[in-house]
Structure formats: C-alpha cells, structure tokens
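ok so i was messing around last nite and threw this chain in just to see what happens. nothing serious, just curious
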Amino acid sequence: MVHAPSWRVLAASLFLVVGAGCASAQNAPPPSKGPGHAAIASANYLATNAGFEVLGKGGNAFDAAVAVSSTLAVVEQQSSGIGGGFMALLHRASDNRDVFIDARETAPKAVDMKVYVGKDGQPNRDVSTNGPLSAGIPGEPAGLVWMAAHYGKLPLSVSLAPAIRIATEGFQPDARFLGTIDDRKDVLARYPASAAVYLPGGKVPTAGWTLRQPDLAKTLQRLAAKGHDGFYKGETAKLLVDASRGAGGNWTAADLEAYQAKERQPLSIDYKGYRIVTAPPPSSGGVAIAEVLNIMSGFDLAKLDLAHSTHLTIEAMRRAFRDHNEYLGDPDFVKMPLDMLLSAYYADGLRATISPDKATPSDLLPTSMAPEPGMHTTHFSVIDADGNMVASTLTVNLEFGSAFIAKGTGVVLNDEMDDFALVPGQPNAFGLRGALANAPEPGKRMLSSMSPSFVFGADRTAVIGSPGGSTIITQVLEGILAFIDGKSASEITAQKRYHHQYLPDRVDVEAGVFDDATTKALTDMGHVLRNRSPWGFMNVVTWDHRTNKLDAASDPRRPSGLGKVQ
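result:
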C-alpha cells in the first residue's frame, strides 16, 4: 500500500464540502418538484433515442442511463463499451441523494510492471495500449447492473433491449467511427476477431456499410438474463479469459469473479452561491476542479480584463495538475491528503505563489513525479420528468481501446492499464505523469480524469461532462464557469477551449478562443500558447427552475451527437 506524505489524511470518507464562495452551497438545493419532461444529450442520436425509448416504457433517468450506455457500447465502440468502464454521478430526486458509481476497471492479479517497460527503461507503449496485456478487468457491465438494481424501475431485459436490437439488426457507422477504424487498422488487423468485425474483406469499410454484431448481441443478452453473473461468470467469462490468455494476456476467472462496482460519496464544492457535485477519487477530476475553484475564489475576476483573468485561471490549472500527478490514486489502496488539497488554507498558499502578470514556469514549482488529448471516451447527461439526474462518463481509453476483441463475445477490451503510472514520472498517452500513488497493484483501479458533474444553483441546474483525456478536467471546469455566468447548454458546449496540465508546460488553445490582444498579453506574461485542432465532445442538460424548462445540447464539433428534450 502506498502512503502519501505525512500530512493528516482523510481517505475513509470522501464526502467533502469545500468552502470556495461567498454564499453557502446550502442556498442552492435542487427543486422539490421535477420538470415534468425529460432531456438527454449523448454522443450518438441512436443512444439518445434509446434513452427516450426506455423512458417511454416507464423507466426513470437511471434506466435511461443503462439504455444510453449499452447503446453507445454498440454504436460508439471507439470511445466506450462493455469491455471498458465508467464513472457516473446520480441524483435521486425522491430523497435528494447524490451518489457516485465507480465502475472503473481494475488491474488483474497477475499484473507485472516489468512487462510494460522497454529495454531502455521507458514505457513500452505498444504493450500498454495494444492487445490483451493492456486491458484492465471491465467495470461497465457491473456498473450497469448495479444502477438498474438499486436505482432503476425496469428489468435489464427492457433497458438493454435497444442495444441488443441494434447489435443484431445492425447500423451504419458514421464518418468518425469509420475514420477511427482507418486510424487503428494496422493494430486491428493483428487480432482475427477484431479484423473480422471491423475490416470486412481485409479493408477499411466505407460510408453505407452496415455493422452487425451477433456475438455482442448474445453477450448483452446473457447480461440481461443473468445480471452480474451473466458477464463475470459462466459462458461470457470463459470466452473472455480464454481469448485473453490465448493472445498472451493474463486474465483469470478469479479476476472477473472478484470485480465489483462501488458506490462512493461525491465531492461537493461551494462556489459563488452554487453547489457543484463532482467525481471523487479514483477520478482526479473533482479534486482538480475543486482546487482550481478554491484558488480562483480569492480573486475578483470580474474586475480584470480577459487576459489577466485567463492568466490566473491557467496558473490555478497548473498547480492543480501538479498535485493531481503527485498524490491521487485509488482510495482503496492509497491514503491521499485530501483534507490538505481541498482546504481553503491550502488554496490561500497556492494563490500566494501566483504572480498577477507573469507565468510561473512549471519547472520552478516543487516537482512531482505530451501527446494530443484524445477523443476516446464519451459522456452523456440525463434529467427525467421527476428531476432524477445522471452524468456519466464512459471509456475504453484510446481509440477502440486495446483493439482486441475477445473471440465469441464481440467485446472490445479496454487499454486502461496505460492510465497507471507504469513508469513513475514518465508521461502516459495523454501526457500525464504519475507517481507511486497510481502504480498498478492487483485489483487496483487506475486513476481517471473523468469528471461527471452537477451544478445546482438557486435558479438553474446543469448536468455536465465530456471526454478528452486530461482535457476533461479543464473542459468541465470551463463549462461550470460558463454555466455560472449564465450561458445556455448550446453556448456551453460550443464555447472555445484552452487547457494547461502542468507538464508539458504550455497552453493548448482552440482557434478563436482568444482575440489577438489577449493572445499577445498572455504571451508577454510568459505563457506558451499552442494552437491545436478542436477537442471535446461535451454533452450538457440544463434546467431553468424559473420557467421549468429543460435544455439539452451536444457538442457541435461532433455532428453525430444529439441533445433532445421530450
């Protein structure tokens, strides 16, 4: 077990209220009555429609979440699937309860860090991102079963029906799906079951191709019929283990049998009269968002121009990501100094290190132990007629995860082992550097950036999240701030983005996020700005309590998404 440095720690209870604003978070409870209609925003119109189909059969937001998740596992496999995991934030209106479901993958018992290190001592990215050794034990099936059993109203056979039907009858993948097959074709071709599904005739399919997945349909049917045991025991489990070990993997039946989804208390942050409920560890996102907001609460940003308010936000991001790299991991394995990281006093100290008009080089901060942020995760948001809410972020890590389909199952295995600090201090595929707190151990959950969040205000509520690797944290942060500033769901998803993650020491900027004067001012302060292509696939639902109106929006950068109110 890894222990954090010798500060007092708080690891047993993760329900943390962080004082960051001028008004009490208790002034912003959710309304006692639901909106009377529903809204869903997801990355694919088939998934959004599946959620509404299940609502129409008497389900609630949690049943709809099962339908959306499982349908995304069929139609958006480059980003999520039942061979991966998820983190979901749930709000149950009947008792005003917020709960976090941790269905993150775990390391198999036989995990060996030496396997992931090359002869040069550097991470072996081929092993950690491709094939069965890159895969953690999946958590999504267990999480869906748990959500349905403890919060839903309908049996799994109803909630999984749309996904089973689409897998059986087929669908026509969109350009993004086909483009990802092309990106990963060389690795997909290594594995016969993967090539058989995605490379018909040995070639990348073109527009108009219908993808049918009978093996995946049967796997989902076993899950619907037998629940948890339908995936983690019996026929599916045997097929998964045999396929993994047959291709050089190290899974065992005991690894699958031991997997359990977990409920955890979410973090609750008070900022400027809003109550923000977000993800606890093993997500790093909520802690980082809380740190940034705590630091920013001490600045009067309204009195500053855009360049200086952005400078201070970037500096807060820099410090939060430094702590992300050093301290955070699976709370069942690691003692984290959360009371320190989330305290107003700690934020005061960090704030004092920020110059009002000069960037702090990351290498001048006390050290802790990069590629393009990816789109290999997905998020959806739901509010139902009764006011139940779900913010869920799902992933297989990189595009098509490990690119390895377990023969006979249709299941694409994740490559989440790369999210561990396999070589402490060395960057993973998203440029994040981890310490021993996130080193792999049998049964341990790897650290995640997934940050599904709720924002409760006196007049408005938001359900928000996004994919994007390490940029998830800054996307959600910027989305929360935009919502607090009064922006609509469509304005939040469409706004231009910027991102700093401590290392590499640069600010990634989307074209058009800053005008020329702001860009020059930030550069003059010492910030290194790097233009890059648009990122993110944010899906947001908002609820205006004054008009009782719901609004839903999917990121306009990705036309396959659908935000829908019904």
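not much to say yet. Confidence is low (pLDDT under 50) at residues 1-27, 368-375.
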